[in-house]
Amino acid sequence: MKNQTSKPASQTGRYFKYAIGEIILVVIGILIALQINNWNETRKERAFELEMLRSFKTSLTTDLADINYNIAKHQASLLACDSILELMTSSNQIHEDALSELFAKAFFVTRFVYSSSAFESLKAKGVNIISNQKLRKKIIDVYDSRYRFFGIAEDDYAKNYFLGIQEIFPLRFEGGVDYDIISGDFVGSLRPIDFELLKKDEEFMYYLKTNRNWTDLYINFHYKGLKSDVVALIDLIDQELNKRQAI
Q1: Is 48 exposed, middle or buried (0-12, 13-18, 19+ CB in 10 A)?
Q2: Half-sphere CA count of 178, side-chain side, radius 13 A
Q3: CA angle 183, 184, 187 (to 5 degrees)
Q4: What was the pLDDT predicted at 8?
Q5: Residue 184, pLDDT above cutoff 60
Q6: 229 has pLDDT over 60
Q7: Cα separations (Å) of 142 from 139, 198, 229, 231, 245?
Q8: Are 67 and 115 in contact (CB under 8 A)?
Q9: Separation in Å, CA 173 to CA 31, 79, 145
Q10: What single-letter DSSP state applies at residue 129?
Q11: Interior angle at CA 227, CA 71 and CA 244, nearest 5
Q12: Predicted confidence band at 45 (pLDDT cuts at 50, 70, 90)?
């Protein structure tokens, strides 16, 4: 007598194997789709990272140019302070126009103008988009720490300058500081009412020496520290860009 259940059982087995095969194919398809999607997302992130690095380099290069310009201006201020101090303690003579120009240089103030748009864009996307950990840390250090710290020092330096404008200059100089804004050198004039009296003016001497010492500190600590960090960051970005180009 034939087994009546053998045929249905055989068909059920084939259907089961077919179903399992379909499920496996679907799972493989999903995994492949996920892998492609992840690959696309990774590719987009790396493209955005590359765009950010180029943007950072452009901004930092502009920042560095402003830093170098400001350092040069403050070095000129430092030299002018030293020249005035030498004149005030000697019998050497100088033409009043040249003296007025020296005073204007001595009390010249600048502002560090920088762009933070690249850093703000990076923060909006997430700083971890920068895959190089050392580079990522340096970017954060420069924009979140160094630029912020320098801004505080800059404000303190400016306060001393405005103290001169408000309290020191009015009774000792003819009018205010007059700078030629047409020329790129901003040649100025600050004409003393009586230079011989200034030589005996202890309050002014104290202010002049303080301005000279602050300018020296400003250049050789704050500005040169800022420049060192910006140059180091540009160098790290260049290394990362060169590495990407070599891939």
Answers
A1: middle
A2: 9
A3: 65
A4: 61
A5: yes
A6: yes
A7: 5, 43, 7, 11, 25
A8: no
A9: 80, 20, 39
A10: G
A11: 140
A12: confident
- On whether the CB atoms of residues 122 and 130 are closer than 8 A, the answer is yes
Task: Report the chain's mean pLDDT, rounded to a whole number.
Answer: 87
Q: Is the dihedral of CA 122, 125, 127, 132 positive or negative?
A: negative
Cα–Cα distance, 108 to 129 (Å, whole number): 42
Q: Are 74 and 215 in contact (CB under 8 A)?
A: yes
Give yes or no for a contact between 165 and 219, defined as CB atoms under 8 angstroms apart. Answer: no
Kindly list the distances between the CA atom of residue 240 and the CA atoms of 54, 97, 159, in Å, as whole numbers in the listed order. Answer: 10, 52, 40
**What distance, in Å, lies between the first and last C-alpha atoms of the chain?**
74
For residue 206, CA distances in Å to 12, 170, 172, 210, 213 come to 103, 16, 14, 6, 11
Q: State residue 26's pLDDT score.
A: 74
Residue 4 has pLDDT above 60, yes or no: no
| Tokens at 6, concatenated | 């053998």
CA 119: distance to chain centroid? 9
CB half-sphere exposure, 59, CA atoms < 13 A? 20
pLDDT value at 80 more than 90: yes
Listed range (21-30, 58-67, 234-243) with the worst mean pLDDT: 21-30
Query: At 181, phi and psi to the nearest 5?
Result: -80, -10
Query: In the predicted model, is pLDDT for residue 99 greater than 90?
Result: yes
pLDDT at position 73, please? 93
